[in-house]
Amino acid sequence: MLQVENLDVHYGHIQALRDVSFAVNDNEGVAVLGANGAGKSTLIKTLIGWNTPSRGRILFDGKDITRLPIWDRAALGLAVVPESGRVFRDLTVTQNLELGAYTEKHRATIQQRAREMFDLFPVLNERKHQIAKTLSGGEQQMLAIARALMTRPKLLLIDEVSMGLMPILVKRVFEVIGQLRASGVTILLVEQNAYEALQVVERGYVLENGKIVLNDTASELTQNPRVKAAYLGG
User: Fold this and answer.
1) What local confidence, expressed as pLDDT, does residue 85 receive?
2) Stated pTM of the model
3) What is the three-state SS of the chain?
4) 232 band by pLDDT with thresholds 50, 70 and 90
5) How many CB atoms lie within 10 A of CB 43?
6) Which of 54, 58, 147, 201 could form a disulfide with 100 if both were Cys (CB 3.0 to 4.6 A apart)?
7) Structure confidence at residue 233 (pLDDT)
C-alpha cells in the first residue's frame, strides 16, 4: 500500500530525515515511534505532500507520488488525522464531517457516511449540531478521525493522536483505533506513546534523529530492551 524508499528531507541546511525506508501493507497497522524531535511530524508532512524530499521516493498503491500535490494524494485515498486534532473550530460537528467528504458529489452518500461515523462515535452523534471548538480535547480528536474516514481512505495516517489528552481520553482514542484496525482499515500511526500504539498495530519502526533505527513486530518491539528503556518506562 505504501512504500517509502531512501527518503531524505531538509529544512534549509538542517537534515530532518535521513535515508528513511519502510512499508505499510494493505490491511495492516504500522506504528512509527519516536521522541519529540525525532522527525515523526516531518515524515507525516512529507507523506501527504507538505514537504518535498531532497532524495528518495514515495510509492502509494503502486504509484509514485513523490512530487504529487496534496489534493491528488487525497484523491488517491490518502487521508490524515493531524496532530492535536485540528478540526474546523467554528463549524459544527456535522459540517466538519461533510467537509471530510468534499470529493463526494452525492448528498445521499455523504449523509450515509455521516450516519456511519455517528454509529462509530456515539458522542459525536450527541454533539452533531455543536460547534467544534466547544468539544473536549478527546471529542475533537474523535471528530478529526471521523472527518478523515469520511473520505473512505485506502490508508489512514494518524499523527500524534495522544498529544495533549488526559490518560482516560488517550485510552478511549486508542480503543477506537483498535476498532478501526479490526474492521480492516489500513493505518500508519505516528506516535510517541509507544505502549498504546503497539497494542493496536502489527508492526513498528523506531525513528531517532531522523533515521529508522529499529523495526520489528509490535510484540517483539514491546519486549525489546532498547524500546522498553526509552519508551516503556524501563
Assistant:
1) 66
2) 0.89
3) CEEEEEEEEEECCEEEEEEEEEEECCCCEEEEECCCCCCHHHHHHHHHCCCCCCEEEEEECCEECCCCCHHHHHHHCEEEECCCCCCCCCCEHHHHHHHHCCCCCCHHHHHHHHHHHHHHCHHHHHCCCCEHHHCCHHHHHHHHHHHHHCCCCCEEEEECCCCCCCHHHHHHHHHHHHHHHHCCCCEEEEECCHHHHCCCCCEEEEEECCEEEEEEEHHHHHHCHHHHHHHCCC
4) low
5) 28
6) 147
7) 60
